[in-house]
Design goal:
Helices cover 44% and strands 16% of the residues. It contains nine helices and five strands. It is an alpha+beta fold. It has helices at 5-17, 24-32, 42-52, 55-60, 63-66, 74-94, 104-111, 152-161, 182-197, and strands spanning 122-128, 134-142, 166-172, 201-209, 212-215. Strand 3 (166-172), helix 9 and strand 4 form a beta-alpha-beta unit. Strands 2-1-3-4-5 form a five-stranded mixed β-sheet, with helices on both faces. The chain starts with a helix and ends in an 8-residue tail after the last strand.
Amino acid sequence: MSIHDGHRQRFKKEFLARPDSFPDHKLLELLLFYANPRGDTNPAAHGLMERFGSLAGVLDALPAELEKTPGVGTHAVTLLKAAKELSGRYLNSRVEMGEIVQTIENARAILQPYFFGARTERACILCMDGKGKSLGVRVIGEGSVNAVQLTIRAAVETALSLNASKVILAHNHVSGVALPSAADKMTTVQMSQVLEAVGVILEDHLIFVDDDMVSLRASDVPF
């Protein structure tokens, strides 16, 4: 029996009783139990928080950078990356397809999980029927840290494959600035025209940055 077993049992009971009370470093310490079955994971948890500044910073860090923290090896890195992936999929699974999209906030709630923890730019499209019922969300482009290739063809093919009558385009800016660029505005106009030609309405184009969002429709971009 490890000298840490008693501490771990008390730690787990405390977490299950009051999970919301756990600060970020204690959550990391608990998670690392399962990568290091015998050792003290408290120093590694503190080391990660000090090195990367926040829980988001830890989960977003590259594997090679994580492994530079003492006490963090391949098992711990795999576990941390799995935790991030699981969190994103959890948020996605909470989104109910078939929901009626009546407001921009409805669309925001559906689309925001798709940009959870993204380190590079990504483009998604929310497809709806004529009554605004959500038919599904699809990722139509992945890009570098500064740009995403918004392929009009992919948007059209996705809309037609889901038999959509209208769509909302969305992508994220990892720069931290949600303001639409000139390229964003041009892409929006072009995509609106092509979609209209096949009988699909582009309702809006949303730009996400962390917890912020900007609507090009509300920004008076003509399309």
